[in-house]
Design goal:
The protein is an alpha+beta fold. The chain is built from five helices and 13 strands.
């Protein structure tokens, strides 16, 4: 069901359907658009094109964990940005997959972690280690949080840890990442020991050189004692 209440708070992105006679992907990119496709459990795969500037703005705001309503395909279509193919040289999007979601149908999504606050242990000289940067959850698309905030001020003393189980979940959201997984921790700063350089034994080098010089001068091998 795609009623007004379901769609009113979503980010909106205008797209165009690509037919068989549409411009090639390279031509689309040259014209300032990005080729893409939208599909889902109850939606037939549909080739589309999106304005590059508009999509990059939406991607920055939404990431892959926020519903984006696509217009231009008939009724507004709620989707998740499922996969973005980036150009290896420019690092800009060159193809996008959207997953059409259905209200009431649960999806699994990686929600990014946003770190806030300052750890008292770090202020005292401890080293902060961020282990996870996203957490897998399952939820109705309408219940998906945009991000999880993790307050580093919880790390008060050496070896304190924040676990996945410490995350406060919105209603209807189920964790898929293991509860005991560590998100962040503080530990003692280990100083690297300076490598001690052992000086070469000059006396042995001198004896060997002297033996070779005597051998060269006499034309005979130096004695074992000389060596």
């Amino acid at each position: 069901m795609k009623d007004a209440a379901y769609l009113k708070n979503m980010l909106t992105l205008k797209v165009k359907k690509r037919g068989e006679n549409s411009a090639t992907m390279a031509a689309l990119r040259r014209s300032g658009s990005i080729p893409g496709v939208v599909y889902g459990a109850h939606h037939e795969a549909t080739p589309i094109s999106i304005g590059a500037v508009a999509f990059e703005k939406i991607l920055q705001e939404a990431g892959e964990a926020t519903i984006v309503s696509l217009s231009g395909l008939g009724e507004p279509l709620p989707t998740l940005i499922h996969e973005v193919d980036l150009d290896p040289i420019t690092n800009r999007p060159r193809h996008v997959d959207f997953y059409a979601v259905t209200k009431g149908e649960k999806v699994e999504v990686a929600i990014p972690i946003v770190f806030i606050g300052i750890s008292p242990a770090v202020e005292e000289g401890a080293n902060l280690v961020k282990v996870l940067h996203e957490i897998e959850v399952e939820a109705d698309p309408m219940n998906l949080p945009h991000a999880f905030e993790v307050d580093l001020s919880m790390l008060k003393i050496m070896n304190d840890k924040i676990h996945v189980k410490d995350i406060k979940l919105p209603a209807g959201v189920v964790l898929m990442t293991e509860l005991e997984e560590v998100i962040a921790l503080v530990q003692e700063v280990v100083e690297e020991k300076e490598e001690v350089v052992v000086p070469a034994d000059i006396s042995s080098i001198e004896v060997e050189r002297k033996g070779k010089e005597e051998e060269t001068a006499s034309g005979e091998p130096a004695s074992e004692e000389t060596k």
